[in-house]
Amino acid sequence: MKIGLTAGADPKARHAALLDARAAALAARGAEREEAVETVAYLVCACGAERYGLPLAAVAGVTPEPTCTGLPGAPPALKGITAVAGAIVSVLDLAACLGLDRAGKDDVGQDGGHVVRLRAQEPPIALAVDRVLGIARIDVALTRPANQPANQPEGLGRGPLSGYAPPGSDRTGDIHEGFSLVDLPALLAHFST
User: Fold this and answer.
1) Which pTM does this prediction carry?
2) What is the pLDDT of residues 14-60, one digit of tens each?
3) How many alpha carbons fall within 13 Å on the CB side of residue 97?
């Protein structure tokens, strides 16, 4: 029945038609709504041509890369120490920690680098990256290995990369490239002595 076609329409029939139309509109609206997906946020950084995601919950802040004071006898991945937000922080080169070939990269005069300070690290640690690209929100299922159930704790002895977010997996739409997910505890285990 059409609503409001004639002024003399039966009030009961008009009321029933109005309720039917409203119910149909509400049902259609529910069908259009996307299923809610649990996501997790990552700070996406560039190291050369590679892209890496650091869990945003582990990031305390990002600053332009300051000059570091080198330490004698330090491992190659440790760029040195510097002051960040009033604290003395050890700065690790993320690319070197991941074993990336940095041939031809000259640290002297490098512009545009960033330092990502990590939360709850003693002593305080920051990661030097070429550039921070933005924040991506990805499906939490991408953060677990395919054969690992959601309720099973992560195993020890894994490498510093825990997964991969393929291109287009960022639900915010800001990060278009794919990126590798960094497992910070595994990455920092080599430097926590």
Assistant:
1) 0.72
2) 888 888 888 887 777 655 555 677 899 999 999 999 999 999 999 99
3) 27
Among candidates 117, 95, 73, 83, which has minimal Cα distance to 180? 95
The CATH class, in words, for 39-191 is mainly beta
Q: Could you state, in order of their start, the residue ranges of all structural domains in the chain?
A: 1-33, 39-191
Token reading at 57: 């919950």
Rounded-to-integer distance, Cα 57 and Cα 118, Å: 9
